[in-house]
Amino acid sequence: MGSKRVPEVRFKGFSGEWEESILGEIVQITMGQSPKGENYTKNPHHHILVQGNADMKNGWVTPRLWTTQITKKAKKGDIILSVRAPVGDVGKTHYDVVIGRGVAAIKGNEFIYQLLLKMKVDDFWVKFSTGSTFESINSTDIKAAIIRVPDELEQSRIGNFFKQLDETIALQQQELDTLKQMKQGFLQKMFPKEGESVPEIRFPGFVERWEAKCLGEISESYSGGTPSVDNKTFYGGNIPFIRSAEINSKTTELYITEEGFNNSSSKMVSVGDILYALYGATSGEVGISKVNGAINQALLAIKPKRGYDSYFITQWLKKQKSSIVNTYLQGGQGNLSGSIVKKLILQIPSDEEQTQIGNFFKQLDKTIALHEQELDILKQTKKAFLQKMFV
After folding, report:
1. What is the C-alpha to C-alpha distance for residues 310 and 287, in angstroms, rounded to an integer?
2. Which end of the chain, N or C, is less surrounded by CB atoms within 10 Å?
3. For residues 289 and 275, is the Cβ–Cβ distance under 8 A?
4. What are φ and ψ of residue 285, in 5° steps?
5. What residues pair up with 107 in beta bridges, in sequence order?
6. DSSP string spanning 58-98?
């Protein structure tokens, strides 16, 4: 943490240097011990088991597994620190829980919790991490960690400040989650169920049955390619090179040259084209291009024909993602293909109804995006305060 002994930003009335301490001397630390596998259950009446980061969401323990065997325990209100990859993640628990070997329980105040969050942001634990397969830290590393702390009153002021900020972030996160759940509900009700030709919810004035069409009938589609990575002259140009993780982004990490584009099977897409991810972890993800750029072989560009609405088709593909992945990818592994996507059958209403449905979801997506931006600003604000209000 360097030699700095006072924070950059401080509450009025506090002065003097923060005191250097050893974490293990000011808090109680309990290392986890995993129960035997045969004692794991899915029964909520048993003891909640916390094994690692997967059992925490938005800074809190979220029950996922239970156990009939008690090994090591954390009490309600304890801090949970991940000691195996990803090392250093921190959360709290609303419950008494059993802790496995992937975590440690720390009895500390709000100041200590926020300090541990800052240590994670600063990659404090990286220098202690060991293991070629899984990074980990041990009891000695944690207990011997050198920290700097102010007096109890200043700790309390800092802790309360960040607690209120966390509550604001949590409220924003809750509003965002509610919006996303609401959208999922509308997707289920505003498109016909399988085997039906009308949706449960419609805009006033529409009564006609929807018509079944293959996606390939109502659109043109193509995938792209990747310029040779061995040729440096193919990269660093002014053509955005869109990859599957960037289908909803306004920027791209890579840019290619005209030479690279002309010497590859990459294809151009325009703002407004549908982009559908075919390969890897993002298979089945869909977005609408926000840039004019080139695509690689992992993406399928879909251009609806006249009379068919891009946003309507995009929302149907989002609704069908789980069904498509479960049908065509074994255990979530493998790739989709352009031929599979073209054969997908969807129900289509009139042009006007497509447009109304597309515009409805477009506005809802804008609202969701605005909430995501506000949440990101709050998180960045907190990150900045962590850097300025701790030593």
Report:
1. 10
2. N
3. yes
4. -70, 145
5. 28
6. TTEE---EEES---EEE-TT-EEEE-BSSTT-EEE-SS-EE
